[in-house]
C-alpha cells in the first residue's frame, strides 16, 4: 500500500503515512522486511565512514568516565555560567586561578572597525570593575581603516509618546537606509563580494521578545521584509484563502468561506461586485459562487474528500484554488510561500496529535483545531529581509549594520514573581558549587496593579532590593556590551 498513488497529490503514500494510519511502528515494518540471516554467513555490520583510532566502545567508556568524575550536574560544563549568572561574578571570575587554571583574554578585535573598537574601549573599559579589570576588557584594533564606508557610529533620536510610535520611527530610519543603499556600501562580507546594502545586512537588536515583535510589525508596516517569526499566521491572505477553501470543501453551506474567497479573488474594491451580486440575487450563494475562481475544481474534490487525510485535503484545496500562483501577484512571494508551508506543517501536526490520542481526523476537525491555535508566521527566508532579534540570540553573530534599540529602557530587577538564586556565604567550592545556595521568590499580590501600592517602593529600599537594582544595572551593562560585539 505504501507504493499506491494518492489521487490528490499523484504521489506515493509512503511507508510513514501508511504506518501512521494503521498505528504500526515503522521499525516493525522494516524488521518484517529483513530476510532471515544465514547463521553461517552472518557477520557484524561494518562501521561506515573513516576508521578512527579509538573504537566506539572505548570512546563511549571514556565519555562515561569523564561524566562520572565531573563535579557539575545537569546539562554539564556549558551551563555553569548560566546557572550562577552574574550574581556570583566576583567568585566565578576568580574560578580559573582558584582551580589551578589560567585566564586567557582576547587581545585583538578582528571583526569590528577601528573606530568602533576605540568607542567600546572608552565606554566599557572600566564598566565591569572590580569583577573584571580593564586589561581584560580593552582590546586592540586589528582591521585597517576603510574611509570609503559609511560612518562607524550614528545616533537616532526616536520621538514618540509610546513604544509603538518609537518603533514606527525606527522602522522609518531603516527604510530610509534601504532606500538610499548607495550611501551604505558593504565591504566583502561572509564570502560575498563588495556591494550595496541589502536587508539581511541589517540587524535590529532588542532587549526583549515583546520589543522584537513590536519592531518587526513596525518594519513590516513600513513595507520591509522581516526575518522574525511573528504571530498572526492564519490571518495572512494566503492562509485565509487556503483555509476558506478547506472549510467550504468540508461544508458547502459555509457562506462565510465563500465570501472570503470572493473577496480575496477580487481584491480591495470600493464597490465589490461579489457583494452587490449577493445582495441583489434571489439565490445569494449561487451568485456568490460565480465570483470565486477555481470553485469548480474545488467542488470536484468533495466526492473523494473521505479518501483524503486532512493534510491532503488542504493540499488539494490549495492546488484547486491556485493559491501558489495567485500569491505571486500579491507581492513578497517568498514569505507567502513560507507561510503556506507553515500552514501545511500545522496540518501534519494536527494529524500526529490525533494519532497520539487515538482520535479520528477530518477536514472539519482540522479547521476547528486551527481556529483555536495561535500560529506564528515564520521568519522570512528572503535575503533582503531585515534581521530582528534579542541581544541574547545575537551572541556570536555579526552584521555589516547593527541597529541597537531600547537604549532608553530602564533596567528591570527580579524582585517579584521571579525565582532568584541567591549567592552563598563565603567562597565557592568548585567540587560542590550548589552547596549553601538557596532560591528567593517574592510573589506580587496586586496582580497587574503597580502604582500606588507602596509595596514596591518599600521592597526596593531593602538591602535585597538595593542588591537587585545593582544586579539589574550590571545586567544592562552586559547587554550593552553584547550589542557592541555584533
Structure overview:
This protein is an alpha/beta fold. Among the domains are: 1-29, no CATH class; 163-229 and 383-404, 3-Layer(aba) Sandwich (Rossmann fold), CATH 3.40.50; 233-377, PCRA, domain 4; 420-484, no CATH class. It is 43% helix and 6% strand. The chain is built from 20 helices and ten strands. The protein has helices at residues 14-22, 26-33, 56-69, 80-84, 89-93, 95-98, 114-124, 163-179, 209-221, 237-250, 255-266, 273-280, 284-289, 295-300, 310-321, 323-326, 333-357, 363-371, 455-460, 463-484; strands at 108-109, 140-141, 202-206, 226-227, 230-231, 376-377, 386-390, 401-404, 420-422, 438-440. The strands form four sheets. The chain has a four-stranded parallel sheet with strand order 4-7-3-8, with helices on one face. β1, α7 and β2 form a beta-alpha-beta unit. It starts with 13 loop residues before the first helix and ends with a helix.
What characteristics describe this protein?
single chain, 486 residues, alpha/beta, Rossmann fold, PCRA, domain 4, four-stranded parallel beta sheet, two-stranded parallel sheet
